[in-house]
Specification:
Elements lengths: L1 H5 L3 H20 L2 H23 L4 E8 L2 E3 L4 E9 L7 E6 L10 E4 L6 E9 L5 E5 L2 E6 L6 E6 L3 E6 L35 E3 L11 H7 L3 E3 L8 E6 L14 H18 L3 E6 L2 E2 L10 H14 L21 E6 L4 H13 L4 E5 L16 H10 L3 E5 L5 H9 L1
Parallel strand pairs: 2-10, 13-14, 13-16, 16-17, 17-18
Antiparallel strand pairs: 1-3, 3-6, 4-5, 4-8, 7-10, 8-9, 11-12, 14-15
């Protein structure tokens, strides 16, 4: 009852104040009719508060988002099912869903009542304009009396995730054939030197040549294991996304970093669709992504795009190439770069020695900085020239340039 009285609306407080004023005036003036009127006006909000406080609202919420993973800028549909598990009907319900600013305005609904043991279905669209992971909810329900004098609030604390992955741009040209090996029956050299991916043994089968027994693995597993004679070779690539704040310009969706994420997502989707196994790396190291090994390209691409949805700018000033230790020699390296320094060029030289004909898409960050001074000593045009001179195939992407055209230059 105390909570209900503290939840009086402006109208309810006005009624209560008016009733008390009428009673005081009636006592001063000796007007019995005015006293009865004042008592009635006071009784109305008090009675409403009592009825709401005694009502047992057993409401259950179920929320689903379809689909749970969308491309930034595309809509998703949120479905709400509010169930009244009590036997009696509810009063008027005011519903408000809490949404992050990236999903738009908060939706509000008014339900006259929900009958006992009955469901109420509601839907509303959301359109995430910003990539990332967003939480839909919680839902706040306010129960009011028919006169609008009392309003009790209840909140469902549960939330539902919605992932907005970066949009992609179709690319029309694949990488040059001489730098890639398709599926075959040869084994990369790195497989035979104790690399982490050297899983090339199987259980012994009746009739296998004993000369093929792999004794170290057999001793470890206490079962006879034999070497595989043939191991399919799959094209591999590492995409390096420069996510350092000092390397990019602009703010929000119009920043060079968000463009770099779109470029990375487009290249990743393009390569995975052509059967390549792609690993993501950022300026702070490798991005852990569980892949199926190329047998399910759609799932692989979705996992990589979800990883890119989480990438944020970092305050680090140097490129971290520690992931090179776990990367087989000869892996194709593709970099999406912003502004660079002399120290960055030395780090990129390590990538050039590790792979074959590395590629780079260099963003013309000056176009996003609106004429602001560059923190590095070299321009983006110089970066492309230096990379090209050291064996890279690089292209410059301006703010209004076509990514497909630049990719054709890089992938030739």
């Amino acid at each position: 009852m105390r909570d209900a009285l503290s939840s009086l609306t402006v109208r309810g407080r006005t009624f209560l104040a008016g009733g008390i004023t009428a009673l005081v005036c009636a006592l001063v003036l000796g007007q019995d009719s005015l006293a009865r009127l004042g008592a009635l006006v006071i009784l109305l909000p008090v009675a409403s508060a009592y009825v709401l406080s005694r009502s047992r609202h057993r409401l259950v919420l179920r929320r689903t988002v379809e689909p749970q993973v969308v491309v930034a800028g595309e809509p998703a549909l949120v479905r709400l099912v509010v169930t009244n598990e009590a036997r009696t009907a509810t009063g008027t319900l005011l519903l408000e869903e809490v949404l992050p600013y990236a999903l738009g305005a908060r939706p509000r609904f008014v339900l006259n009542s929900i009958a006992g043991n009955w469901d109420q279905h509601l839907t509303y669209p959301v359109r995430p304009e910003v990539r990332g992971r967003h939480a839909v909810g919680p839902l706040t329900i306010r129960v009011t009396d028919p006169f609008g004098l009392v309003e009790l609030g209840r909140t469902f604390q549960s939330t539902t995730p919605l992932v907005a992955v970066p949009r992609t741009i179709p690319l029309s040209v694949g990488l040059a054939a001489q730098t890639w090996a398709g599926s075959g029956h040869s084994r990369p050299r790195s497989f035979s030197v104790g690399h982490a991916e050297d899983v090339t043994v199987r259980e012994y089968r009746q009739g296998d040549d004993m000369r093929r027994v792999h004794w170290p693995t057999s001793a470890r597993t206490e079962e006879l294991m034999v070497r595989r004679e043939e191991q399919p070779l799959q094209a591999r690539a590492v995409l390096v996304l420069d996510n350092r704040a000092v390397a990019h310009g602009g703010r929000g969706l119009s920043s060079s970093f968000e463009t770099a994420v779109v470029v990375a997502a487009s290249i990743v989707t393009h390569l995975v669709a052509r059967g390549h196994r792609v690993t993501l790396a950022s300026a702070t190291g490798s991005l852990d992504t569980v892949l199926s090994g190329g047998t399910e390209p759609a799932r692989d691409a979705a996992a990589l795009l979800e990883s890119l949805a989480d990438v944020e700018l970092t305050s680090e000033r140097a490129l971290d190439l520690s992931w090179l230790r776990n990367t087989p020699t000869g892996t194709q390296v593709i970099a999406v770069l912003g502004g660079t320094t002399a120290a960055d060029h030395r780090a990129l030289a390590r990538l050039e020695r590790h792979g074959r004909s590395p590629r780079a898409v260099v963003l013309d960050v000056g176009g996003w900085r609106h004429g602001a001074l560059r923190p590095s000593e070299e321009t983006d045009h110089d970066t492309v020239a230096l990379l090209t001179a050291s064996g890279w195939r690089a292209g410059l992407l301006g703010r209004t340039d076509s990514l497909d055209r630049v990719w054709q230059q890089v992938a030739r």
